[in-house]
Amino acid sequence: MSVLDLARPEIRMLEPYSSARMEASGGQIMLNANESAWEPVGEASAGCNRYPEPQPQPLLQALAELYGVQREQLFVGRGSDEAIDLLVRAFCRAGEDAVVIQPPTFGMYAVCARIQNAAVIEAPLAQDFSLDIPALLGAITPAVKLVFLCTPNNPSGKSISRAAIEQVAQALAGKAMLVVDEAYIEFSDQPSAIELIGRHEHLVVLRTLSKAWALAGARIGSLIASPEVIALIRRIMPPYPLPLPCVAAAQAALSSAGQAAARSHIDTVREQRGLMYRSLAELPGVREVLPSDANFLAVRFDDAGGVYRRLLEAGIVVRDVRKYPNLRDALRITIGTPEENARVLGSIS
Fold first, then answer.
1. Do 146 and 233 belong together in one domain?
2. C-alpha–C-alpha distance, residues 288 and 329, integer Å
């Protein structure tokens, strides 16, 4: 069985759109895309009169080196959100197929599924936010095409071990695609699931430059999978998903200087996460600080709503996660600079 047998047959047969940039073969005078011949005003807009490369090779190469994969295993799009949306559209038939999620988890898995009119099956995490593998596998039906795992989990911060991921991957072989979202993996000691892709062709890993690489505003996310899955996703991608200034920002972030800065900031976040974990746990009104492998802490309060309002009055915005199951008394607090973290502690105490 080919992994592509899990995809929608009409997507496998689809004739992909061929953009003008794809068809340009090294020309010098570009008159094939109805672009303006004049560059816009402003140094930051240089070159923006031309459509960008759909999948720019220098960026693909830099990301391939960062993640230890081949360029043919990479699709780069507008954050992980676009990758999630494309996966759902490629594998789920409207009104027939389903996805499985483990709440509490990142909300876009369900949103993208419901936009596609795919069913959303929930296999909740255990009480301690660990993956309940028997419950997850028990939720699999013939309609399920995608299973989403978020590690470290958003919003709890708990990681899934690579051994557990491989156990799930083995159980899903020939049944469904396993999508592992590693948006916060840089802040964790857990190894990436990327190394498992060679053994499990139905495994997909999502990575992003939004968090550890400080490019949330540039919207650069990667889908890493077998070359066959990547080729399928590229059939349905928008003609020009990556704006030229965003590509430039990503390439700067992935330079030697950019990588050194990111590593330094990751070290600071990890140090501050430990400090905030200990300091928050000592404050009155704090019930529990959940252990976290991410760049945030989920904190239970006696009066989470009151703390949220108090922080907002102090000009500090945190995430109210009380709508999530098993987090009805919690706020999610991102780890900021040492000065910002000190203000949080001062405003809560």
1. yes
2. 10
